[in-house]
Structure formats: structure tokens, C-alpha cells
Write a structure and sequence with these properties.
The protein is built from 19 helices and 28 strands. The protein is α/β, with parallel strands linked by helices. Among the domains are: 33-65 and 73-201, Response regulator (Rossmann fold); 458-508; 519-619 and 632-774, Rhodopsin 7-helix transmembrane proteins (Rhopdopsin 7-helix transmembrane proteins). Helices cover 40% and strands 15% of the residues. The protein is elongated.
Length: 788
């Protein structure tokens, strides 16, 4: 077949070359081209501003006369009328008429058509295609540049892959667009060989992947899914329930009414072809137009009047319930029309051709239409998208058909879904399993002989050495999911999500932070507020009894400052509870550091005051209080506190703490915490507090044996011992505690050290003020010193 097509192509090229060269070299044809010959072909024609061609199978076979090579051969004759092929012809005519009535598509321009019969023969189809490409007019007058509009701008057809290969290989040389509605060979997708070929039927490349037969449920290709010859009661025990793909069925509103308007031309001379409608009429009504063949009337044959009613006969011609090739013809005509419309709407100076030029109506060229046909994209009234890929192939779409064997013995081929490829490239399968007839018991979908389907939340793992249908279902790892049946792989959840307990979808990770609503947060908050309240109460007691000796001893102003700083220490612990935010993260450590430095500074100054008062009580020691009076005490506390404030300021400006979502501690939850930003800054803050605390402890320890009359050193020593012990234990506990527990450890250290200072330094004094007022006198206090 390949050699035959090649010889046809070579012969045609030689004929064309001879025609063109002879016309160009003959002076008498300087402004016109002469047609060397004319084929007598069956066809239907309609004039228009732009004419579209069509190749259809209207007859089943043809007869060629014997070649004597001594005279001009007679024209071949076609026989065996194909009603379905003629219905496709009328469908194209309907589409053209519908477009002409559409004021939005190709306005102010009428389409015509020239539709020919290929008689299921390559030679006749070739002749028809060349007739449309070159025209049937005896002389074609050209302009000075020897150019003119072609007879047809594009051809719908041919339905056969073989004929399409042969015809488009020649038409492609001149870039005449050819849109087939039934040629499926994947070889036609070769853009190098067939640059102007398009099709509205999917390529075979989209199919039948080889499928193994499972039991008695057959899987059919498009070639025999709707083959009526196999749909017999004898074959149903074997082929019943067959699942297959079929060319997409479409609905064309108004087509049946148009088909009913088909009428013959009783005055037409049948001897010169172009009598397709008359042939259809004779075939349908079994009559003959005048003049009838010899012996027709004598043999009892009827004469056709042209007034016969199509609705009175049973014919497939009027059956529009199963339009498949016709729907592709319809789409092909509209594709050409939309491409032509896009070409004519081109704005001068913004076109796609040389110099940004556009195609003009006066000089339409087929190759220009190929450019726009490649980019066409529209949706039919049936809802199907029509566009072509880089190879000229339409977006593939098939109906999925199922052979039903009904109880009364009849066979019904029923649509149970569709399969198509989207413009994005993915394949979409829609299947209505409830409508499928299964040809075995029980009447349910077949199951794998080895393994059940793997449910969502698992993945398939093939069993080595066993058939492909045998596999194990392995649960997805934590943090991974599969949301489809028979998934080959599990996919990881996004960073802020975790797998559900069923491992079939991702859920937001649980969040964790030291909350006010959990028991630990409630306890720490209660302790903080309790400490704040106790500080306020002690401050109120001291203010109320500020004139008593025990309050005035060792500088009552420092005691008030110390109580206020302890109150701030208790309150700053609340900043460590609740969801971390930018302002709480930046404020918590600064407030903690400054509050505790203020507290320890007051204790340090009180310790120094104890030593100064003791030295002042000895002869010659009055100068010690002079150089460390009230102003110096306030200045010392302020200076030491400002140093910590400067450390905090430098830390916040250089690398401040900030909220941080930590996913390293736990895979299934997010820990909200405050990243310290600068570890050095945090270490310097703690080190400065520790330095003051150790200094206070050492000075108090040296002054622990002074007379009780002046001495708070023992209490300060004990309080500093508690303070240092708490914060020394804090460091390793803080480092080893993850997430919210680190915040809880820090809050606990703040509260423990604050309660320790409050209880040790102010507990004994409150005891005397409230329960032993008789000891809150100067004599009693001085007497204690004498007894010692």
C-alpha cells in the first residue's frame, strides 16, 4: 500500500508540474491557466464568498473501465449507496447553513461548499481532492502576479486514514488545510510529513495500551465497540458485558428537521454526476427518475416524483440519536469557520505574518488559514472543547460503552461514562459503575484474584515473584498520607500539617505553648498573682507602720523599693504565659532582667548600709554614713539598674527575641516559643544578675556576726543563698526542657526566688509587727543587742 501511495503521489506531482510548466511557457495563457482535464464526480455544491470542501463515503464500491490505451478512458462509476455517509454530507451542509445564519460568526460573509463522494476508493478520493484544490472551471483568470483565491479554503475529510495519508501528503505541499473527522492513524500526527492535516477524532495513540482480558469481561477498542455484526444473541454469552471506547456521541439541535428538508432536483441530468441527492432518493424510495433505465417501468418499477415523504419510510438517514462521525464533521466545519473568522478579524499592522501583515478577504491563502486553525479553541453547544495540539490532533474524548444483554434477548449498547484528556494534559475518567452489565456472577465489578484494593492511608508494595495483581498494603508513615485507593506512594504533609489518625488526609498540627487554660499555666498564674498580692499587703503593712523602729531600721526607703521590685518580679512572670507574640517575647526577658537587678541592687545596698551603720557606731566611724548616705544609696541602685537596662537595650536592638514555630521537638505538633535571638545577650543578662547576687551574698556573709541591733546580714545571706541555689539549678533545667516546659522552668525560678526573698527578708519583720508588737520598740531592738 505504501508503494502504491508513493506512485500515486509521484504521478500527481509530475502531472501538476507538466500542467503548470506548460501553462507558464505558453504565451497564449499569460493571464490564465487552462484545466487539462475534468473529472465527473458525484457531489453537492453551494456557492458562497468562501467555499469549503468535503470528502465523504457515499458509495461502497466503484467500477473502473478497462484501459485500452487507445482512447480516452471513461469515468469510473460508483455503486452501493451508503445512507450514513450521505447523512454526514448533509450534516456538513447543515453546519454551513447554521454558520451563515449566525450573525456573530463570519458576519457579512457567506460560506459555500463542494462536497464529493470518494466511493471508498483512493483514486476517486484523490481526484476529488485535486478537483477542489485546482477547481473545475475550464479557464481561471489570474491577476498580474499570477495569484488568486483558491477554489476551496479547506477540506473536511477524508474519513479513511489511508486516503488521508495520500491526499494530505500532496495538499500539505501547498498548505491546504485538511480536517479529517474519522482518520485515526497516529502516523498522521507527523507534522513534518503532514503540515496542514488536522482532525476532530482522537488519534489511535490515545488508545487500548494493551489490556489483558480478565475472565469473560472483554475490553474493546474503538474499532469494534459499536460493531453491530458482533452484537448477536449467539455471541452474547461470550461478549456480553463488553466494555469499550467509542467515538464521542454528540447532539446537533435542528439537524433532523434539516434532513427532512432534503429534496431532489427532478430536472437534473444524472449523466454528469452531481446527482447525489437524486441517488439517495432513488435508493430510499426504490424508484427511478425519468428517464428511467430500459425495462424499469415494464418490470414494475416506480417512477420518482420528488414529492415522496421521508417520514413515511424507515431509514437510518433520519436517526439522529447516535451521531458520532456526524458530530466530528460538525466540529470540523466549525473549526474551519472559527479559524477563518479569527483570520478576518486581524487588525492591520498587528498580524502574525511577515511585516505584521494580515490575511485579506481579497487574497485569502490556505496556508494562512492553517496558522489560525492551529490556534482555534471553542466549545460546542454540547459542551465539548475543541482545539488542536502541535500535531493537529484534537483533544481526545471517547464515550465508554457497555454491551447489555437484556432478558428478552435484545442487545443494547449503553453509554456508561467517558474518558478524555484535558487541555492541561491530564486524563480524566468518568465511569458510572451502577449502569455497567457484568457478564458473570455475581453481577458486580470483578475483584483482583490476589489482593484487595489498598484503602486510603496505605500504599501498594508489589510481591516479588508473583503476578502484578498481588501486593501488600503498607500503612503510610507518620506525617505521610495517601488519599486514593491503590496509591503507589505516600505523600508528605506540608510543614504545618500532620497526618490524620486514618493517614488519609492532612490536618493542622496541634499547637503547644504555656497556656493560661492548662493546669500548669493556671497554677503558675495563681502563684504569680498571689506573690503580687502578698507584696502589696506587706507594702501596705510597712507603710502603715512606717514610724515603728523595725521598719525604720536599715533604711525603710530601701525596703519600700525592694517590695516594689519584688512585685515587678512576680508580675513579669505573667509575660512567660500565653501564646508568644513579638511584644511579649521582647518584653519578658527585659522586664525580668531589670526587675531582678533592681531587687538585688536594693539588697546589695541594704547589706552595705548594715556595714556602714556598724562602722558609724564605733568611735571615728561617723564618716562612713556621710559617704554612703541616702543620696548615694539611691544613686547606687539607679546606676546598677541602668547598667542592666543598657544590656537589655543593646540586646533588643542587635538581635531581639521573636516568636518561633518549633517543629523539631515533636513531629505532630508545633511548639510556639520565644527564640532568644542572641544567646550572648541572654547570657550577659543572667550573668549580671548572678554577679550582683554573689556580691550581695559575700558582703552579707562577712557581716553575718554583727550585733542584731543593726544586723539584717543573716537574713540577706540566707535569702541570697536561696536565690543563687534557685538560679544555679535553673540553668541546666532550662537547657534540657523543651518547648513550653522551658518557659515553665523560668517562671518557676522567678517565683521561687521571689518568694524566697519575700519570705526570708520580710517574714520575720511582719511577724513582729503583727504578732509581737511589744518587740517593735527601740528599747527591745537595742536590748537584743545588749543581751548578746
Amino acid at each position: 500500500m505504501g508503494k502504491v501511495m508513493q506512485s500515486h503521489s509521484n504521478l500527481l506531482l509530475l502531472v501538476l508540474y507538466f500542467c503548470f510548466s506548460s501553462a507558464a511557457s505558453s504565451p497564449q495563457f499569460s493571464s490564465s491557466c487552462q484545466l487539462q482535464g475534468r473529472f465527473h464526480l458525484n457531489g453537492i455544491h453551494k456557492t458562497g464568498d468562501v467555499v469549503l470542501g468535503g470528502l465523504f463515503q457515499i458509495h461502497f464500491f466503484s467500477v473502473f473501465p478497462d484501459l485500452s490505451f487507445t482512447s480516452e478512458p471513461q469515468q469510473p462509476s460508483c455503486h452501493g449507496f451508503d445512507v450514513l455517509g450521505f447523512r454526514q454530507v448533509r450534516t456538513m451542509a447543515f453546519a454551513v447553513e447554521e454558520i451563515n445564519r449566525n450573525s456573530k460568526l463570519l458576519p457579512n460573509l457567506s460560506l459555500g461548499y463542494s462536497l464529493y463522494d470518494n466511493c471508498l476508493n483512493l483514486g476517486i478520493g484523490f481526484r476529488a481532492a485535486m478537483s477542489m484544490a485546482s477547481g473545475q472551471v475550464e479557464h481561471i483568470v489570474l491577476d498580474d502576479n499570477c495569484v488568486g483565491s483558491p477554489p476551496v479554503m479547506g477540506i473536511v475529510g477524508d474519513p479513511s486514514s489511508t486516503r488521508s495519508i495520500a491526499i494530505s501528503s500532496v495538499l500539505g505541499l501547498y498548505r491546504v488545510p485538511m480536517v479529517s473527522y474519522f482518520a485515526t492513524c497516529s502516523c498522521l500526527s507527523d507534522r513534518q510529513k503532514f503540515p496542514s492535516f488536522f482532525r476532530t477524532i482522537p488519534s489511535d495513540a490515545f488508545q487500548v495500551v494493551k489490556q489483558n482480558v480478565t475472565g469473560l469481561q472483554w475490553l474493546a477498542s474503538e474499532a469494534w465497540t459499536t460493531a453491530a455484526v458482533l452484537q448477536t444473541p449467539q455471541l452474547m454469552p461470550y461478549l456480553g458485558g463488553t466494555l469499550g471506547i467509542a467515538v464521542r456521541r454528540g447532539e446537533i439541535p435542528g439537524l433532523r428537521d434539516f434532513l427532512l428538508q432534503t429534496r431532489p432536483n427532478i430536472h437534473h441530468d444524472n449523466r454528469y454526476g452531481n446527482s447525489t441527492v437524486n441517488q439517495f432518493w432513488e435508493f430510499t424510495f426504490q424508484c427511478r427518475f425519468a428517464p428511467p433505465p430500459a425495462g424499469w417501468v415494464e418490470g414494475g418499477g416506480a417512477l420518482c416524483t420528488g414529492q415522496e415523504d421521508l417520514e413515511t419510510v424507515e431509514t437510518e438517514f433520519l436517526d439522529t440519536t447516535n451521531l458520532r462521525p456526524e458530530y466530528n464533521v460538525y466540529k470540523a466545519v466549525y473549526a474551519l469557520a472559527y479559524a477563518l473568522d479569527d483570520m478576518l478579524q486581524c487588525e492591520p499592522g498587528r498580524g502574525p505574518f511577515n511585516g505584521h501583515s494580515c490575511g485579506s478577504f481579497q487574497k485569502l491563502e490556505p496556508w494562512q488559514l492553517v496558522h489560525y486553525l492551529q490556534k482555534v479553541n471553542f466549545t460546542t453547544s454540547f459542551g465539548d472543547q475543541v482545539s488542536f495540539d502541535e500535531n493537529g490532533d484534537a483533544l481526545p474524548i471517547y464515550d465508554i460503552m457497555n454491551w447489555h444483554w437484556l432478558p428478552d434477548g435484545r442487545i443494547k449498547v449503553q453509554n456508561v461514562g467517558d474518558v478524555k484528556r484535558s487541555a492541561a494534559g491530564g486524563e480524566v475518567l468518568k465511569l458510572n459503575e451502577d449502569r455497567i452489565f457484568w457478564n458473570f456472577e455475581p453481577k458486580k465489578p470483578p475483584r483482583s484474584v490476589c489482593s484487595d484494593s489498598c484503602p486510603p492511608g496505605t500504599r501498594m508494595v508489589r510481591k516479588k515473584g508473583e503476578p502484578e495483581c498481588c501486593f501488600d498494603c503498607i500503612p503510610c508513615s507518620k506525617g505521610k498520607i495517601s488519599n486514593k485507593t491503590n496509591s503507589m506512594e505516600c505523600t508528605s504533609c506540608p510543614e504545618d500539617f500532620w497526618s490524620s489518625p486514618q493517614l488519609d488526609h492532612c490536618v493542622p498540627k496541634r499547637t503547644e505553648f504555656l497556656s493560661y487554660h492548662e493546669p500548669l499555666g493556671i497554677c503558675l498564674t495563681t502563684a504569680s498573682l498571689l506573690g503580687t498580692f502578698i507584696c502589696a499587703a506587706v507594702l501596705g503593712i510597712f507603710i502603715y507602720h512606717r514610724s515603728t523602729p523595725i521598719v525604720r531600721a536599715n533604711n525603710s526607703e530601701l525596703s519600700f523599693q525592694l517590695l516594689l521590685s519584688l512585685k515587678l518580679c512576680f508580675l513579669c512572670s505573667l509575660l512567660f504565659i500565653g501564646r508568644p507574640r513579638l511584644w511579649t517575647c521582647q518584653l519578658r526577658h527585659a522586664a525580668f532582667g531589670i526587675s531582678f537587678v533592681l531587687c538585688v541592687s536594693c539588697i546589695l545596698v541594704k547589706t552595705i548600709v548594715v556595714l556602714a551603720v556598724f562602722k558609724a557606731s564605733k568611735p571615728g566611724g561617723e564618716a562612713s554614713l556621710k559617704w554612703f548616705g541616702a543620696m548615694q544609696q539611691r544613686g547606687t541602685v539607679l546606676l546598677l539598674t541602668l547598667i542592666q537596662a543598657a544590656i537589655c537595650t543593646a540586646w533588643l536592638l542587635s538581635s531581639p527575641p521573636a516568636p518561633h514555630k518549633n517543629t523539631q521537638y515533636h513531629n505532630d505538633k508545633i511548639v510556639y516559643e520565644c527564640a532568644v535571638g542572641s544567646t550572648v545577650g541572654f547570657a550577659v543578662l543572667l550573668s549580671y544578675i548572678g554577679l550582683l547576687a554573689i556580691l550581695s551574698f559575700l558582703i552579707a556573709f562577712l557581716a553575718r556576726n554583727l550585733p542584731d541591733s543593726f544586723n539584717e546580714a543573716k537574713l540577706i545571706t540566707f535569702s541570697m543563698l536561696i536565690f543563687c541555689a534557685v538560679w544555679v539549678a535553673f540553668v541546666p533545667a532550662y537547657i534540657s526542657s523543651p518547648g513550653k516546659h522551658a518557659d515553665a522552668v523560668e517562671v518557676f525560678a522567678i517565683l521561687a526566688s521571689s518568694f524566697g526573698l519575700l519570705g526570708v527578708l520580710f517574714g520575720p519583720k511582719c511577724y513582729i509587727i503583727l504578732l509581737r508588737p511589744e518587740r517593735n520598740t527601740k528599747k527591745a531592738i537595742m536590748g537584743r543587742g545588749v543581751t548578746k
